Amino acid sequence: MSDNPVIAFGRWLAETPADWPDAAWQAAHRAFIDIVAVSVPGAAEPVTLRMFDTVARWGAGPSTAIGFGAKLAAPWAALVNGTAAHALDFDDNFDPAKAHATAVLAPAILALGEQEGASGRDCLDAYVAGLQILGRVGQGVNPVHRNRGWHATATVGAVGAAAACARLLRLDAEQAGFALSIGTSMAAGFMSQFGTMVKPIHAGLAAKAGVMAAAMARGGINAGLHTLDGRTGMTRLMVGPDYEQLRDGLTHVEHGQTLRFETEAVGDPLLILSSGLKVKRFPNCGSAHRAMDGLLELKDRHGFTAEDVAEIHVRAPVSHLNNLMYTDPRDPLQAKFSLEYGLAVALIHGGCRLGDFEGDMAMRPDVRALYPRIHRHPVDKAEGEFPTEVEVRLADGRRFETRVRMPVGSLAAPFSMDDYWAKFEGCAAGAMPGDARERLRAALERLPELGDLSPLMAPLGFTSPAAGARDRA
């Protein structure tokens, strides 16, 4: 293998046989169940409705726009469906890339797969391979890339989606490398968009980039081979001019993030198994989940209520608290990036659901009354070095503490299949007709055996109540 990552990753995509371990196929299958589940209600979110209205005038095509009763050209379907997948912030996280992986990969794969007549197994194979390259690129630029404000879902995600689509199209090694390189030219997105409509659009833009990059490479468009590690490549432009100093000075490595691209053993370990995905228990920023898990653990164990609580103290890595930038959220989008809101809702209701991020729910007096009792204590350590600590002090003087290293939904506390299907039902019920929901679930269960994607995409072609109301207005 070449030590040039564009070449090495392109060769790996083209030459690696689809003989993944059974556990990898199963993990990919579960990822599709989860992302389809959250995309169904995500399609009815205002940002997705507006995105569809924007791209629909650009022309119809072969690929289903979820929840709109319409088909678009594959790049535009990937853009709309990627936005829907990330709109609720209920989609999974992937630590090696510090990105929302499936919200980028699956919409690109499904849009292109529907166009190309791909089988369910083809799509799962593209997902495993695309996730591997997404992770390898993320390990080469993180943690600094994301800590400096780049939204890796949008940046690293574009390259990972290009990898998945190159695999799906069965590009040769040179074409696959060009697809990755083209993807770097569409990699963009800042964390300053968090709490706005543009944040979920980042996932859609990355999915669209993957479809387009692979199609361009198949069409004979070539690209530079030093866009990841060259003098003006991703490392020096999107990590920083001090990249080499940072790389050589690393003293602590998490999630394989060495600031080096692994070019010798690209597929070993297989990241879908060694790192896994963090599937979300709650529909808000994952940086809040360890604290919310800890609070609910203490609440369940000791039986206190919101009225009993005098103070909640959270000691967490500064990177987590930086992501939760809204201490006084005023709307649903801000509430998703608020530690205070997540903890207050969990304390009052014993959980956190999609309905807690609708309308004026962020302005509920009972929730807002708890904010002064919640205290942040940033710790200047990486998430793997320091578990989130939650301390609850009650009005009667009792104190309870716990430490949470990994959230529910991670490899440390994985979802059962019952959990996946419960999440599916919770997302789809009320968001799509019952007959379509039943057909969708049946198709998802059989995804690895589908000869093409029509049984899956047909029920996803329903028209959501929100889209229908907009059409009638």
Amino- and carboxy-terminal Cα gap: 58 Å
Q: And the CATH topology of the largest domain?
A: 2-methylcitrate dehydratase PrpD
Q: Please give the count of helices.
A: 22
Q: Give the overall shape.
A: globular
Assign the CATH class of the largest domain: Mainly Alpha
Specify Rg, calculated over alpha carbons.
22 Å
Write the H/E string, N to C.
HHHEEHHHHHHHHHHHEHHHHEEEHHHH
Low-confidence stretches: none
Number-wise, the strands total 6
Descriptive key words:
473 residues, globular, 60s Ribosomal Protein L30, Chain: A, two-stranded antiparallel sheet, 2-methylcitrate dehydratase PrpD, alpha+beta
Summed up:
It is built from 22 helices and 6 strands. It has helices spanning 5-15, 22-42, 46-56, 74-87, 102-116, 120-141, 144-147, 152-168, 173-184, 198-218, 234-238, 243-248, 271-274, 289-302, 318-323, 332-335, 339-349, 365-368, 417-428, 434-445, 454-460, 465-472; strands at residues 60-65, 70-72, 309-317, 374-379, 388-394, 399-404. The protein starts with a helix and ends with a helix.
